[in-house]
Structure formats: structure tokens, C-alpha cells
Amino acid sequence: MPRFINALALLVATGLIATHAHGQEVSTVTSVIDGGTGGLAVDAQGNVFMGDFGPNLSGHGTRVFKVTPEGDVSVFASGFDGASGNDFDSHGNLFQSNINAGRIDKIAPDGTVTPFASGLSAPVGITIDDGDTLYVCNCGSGSIQKIAPDGTSSVFATSPVFQCPNGITRDDTGNLYVSNFNNGSLIKITPTGSLSILAVVPGGNNGHVVYYDGLLYVASRGGNRIFTVTLEGAVSLLAGSGLAGNDDGPLSEATFSLPNDVVPDPTGRYLYVNDVVDAKNPSDTAPMLLRRIDLGSPASAPSLDESMRVNGVRVVSVHPNPFATTATISLSVDRTMPVRVTIHDVQGREVARVVDGVLGPGRHDATWRDGGSAGVLPQGTFYYRVSSPEGTFGGTVQRIR
């Protein structure tokens, strides 16, 4: 039996690899908050900042709340008019849109509020690039506004495909993704301004969208669920039964009520979602809860001892992680040698073999496509193992649906 199977079997037998998936559930972080579901942003310390949209879609909420990772809630800033989307710049300033005032405000780390840009048309979602340029959804005019750090403003994109553009996010190569409020369309905008509909998310009414580590996460406000969308446009259900409610539990059983935004914490283990308590009609936005989706932590999941890392072979990246249908394990090999890469479930059983041969020096991509010889696998935690004559090492990869 190969060395890497022996090592894995030993770890399972001794309990160093758990025999159950990590996380994979929805929980409630806060008690009921007397405010409406605006946008969410997370700082480097894991605090969540929540815009208070107001009691309903008329949007006259005046506050931004701060929620610690432990669930403590306080008012961070006030003086807004329909606090909706928000995002942080590189200096820790929070930019907050005011849908009814047509204005973006800048909130310093100490909570001081100053006007930043005005004359917008019902602004909602905000995303900020590496150079601190803002891209803002104009729900009222069906356009995307580009605002430079000095406040200079121009229309970046406009099209009939925008039907109250609501949420906006940016990937690693500068593409923008916009979620419509009035339908389920998710729209891609290239850096040159070319538009295309990437996907249509079930539910007919999107909240916000966020990009993280190769995947888009979309809150389906109309569908009471959270979806993932690959950059190729494949849509998968992540969490929510589709029934309206605020019940915690496993991803497929938990319920949401008009969820509006979804954002990851700094580790990527948790996704935060805000939703409405006891909604009576689709226009309700308050009161609200902050919910948390635990995807399971690749960083904290057990793995083989670091001393077993292979001389001459290392993993450059595993992406996307979590993944829906395809994950790529990128290897760097220093010299020609036989290499094997296998995928195992939490009980140590091999479910896929993605590399088994001699690799030369350089970078190599090992692609795992779900639905192979093991069939379509359930969502959860899996372990990749890299083996060569020098030894074995590995890590975790998270599958979602």
C-alpha cells in the first residue's frame, strides 16, 4: 500500500482527522435589531458594519451598526437617509450610500461622517478597487457610477439590462459583477465597460453580491436562499430551504427571510447574511438579524503533519476553495519525479485520483471535477493528498452545491 494511504489511515484511526465535516451550518449572531437590512461590510478585525435601510423599501434608516464577531451590537455612525450599500477603502474608511439622499458619505474609523459625493440616482451597492476608486450602483437611473478618490464622478456603464442595479462586487482581474433588484440577473462588466448577463439567479429578486476566492455569492431576496455563481456562470444553491423564516441549522434546512446582503469574514470560513424578522410582505426590511453561514475552515481543519511536506513539491494554490463543480490544485515541482494527487473524504476513502505520473520541473495544474468515478459527491470537507518518493502532505478543500 502506498505511503500516503498508510499515513492517512493512521491519522483517521488515531482521530487526528475528524470523521465528520467541519461547520456547514447556519446560526444567528445577534438578537433582533431595530433597523432595516442595508448593506454589509467587514473590517480586518472581523467586525460587521450594517447599514440601516429603514423599516421598508421606502428607505429612511439613519444609522450604521457595528457588530463584533461575538454578536455585540452598537451604533457606529448616524445621520444617513436610507443607509444601503457600503465598502471599505484601503485606509479603513467606510463609504456608505444613502438611497434617498442621492449621496455617498465617508465614515472615518472613529465614526466621523463627511459627505463624499452627491447627485447620484438612488445609490445602493458600492465596491472599491485597489486604487480606492468607487463603483456605485445607481438603482434609479440603471447605471454604474465611477467615483475617483478625489470625488470626481462619471458614468462607467449604463444599459437596459440594469433593472435597479443593487449589489456590486469586483473580482481579482477587475471585472465587476452587478445584481439586479428587479429581476434575478447577474451582470458582468469588463474593465473596458463591456456588459453581458453572466447568470440568472433563482428567486426573481436579488439582494447583494460579493466575490471571494474565485466564487460569487448572491443573496436571493425573493428566493430566501443564498447561491454561489462561478465566474463561468454556473449557479449552485449554498444555503436555505427556500421557506421564509429565521431558523438555524444545516445549510439545506436553515431558513432565511428576505436576505439582503452576504459578505465573508477575513478568514473565509464564515459568510454573514442579514435578513428580516417576521416579514409580512415583500417590501419589509425591518427588524433584522445578522446570520452566519459556517462553511468549515480549511485553516483549522486537521491535516497531515507539516514535517511530511515533500522536498521538491509544493502547492501554490487551491482554487476556488470552496468550489461547486471543479477545483484546481496548482503544484510547483523543482525536479522530475513521480507525483500522485488524490482526493479523500473525511473517513479517509479515496474518491478521486487527479494526478498519477511523472512530472517535470515547473508548474502543474491538477483539476478535480466532481461527478467522476465516485459520482456526484455531497457538499462538505474533503482532503487532497500530494505524494512523491520524498513523502506526503496535504490540505483541505470545501465542496458546496
Automatic annotation (TrEMBL):
Coiled coil: none annotated. PANTHER family: LACTONASE DRP35, LIPOPROTEIN-RELATED. This is T9SS type A sorting domain-containing protein. Keywords: Signal. InterPro entries: 6-blade_b-propeller_TolB-like, SMP-30/CGR1_Lactonase. Residues 1-23 form the signal peptide.
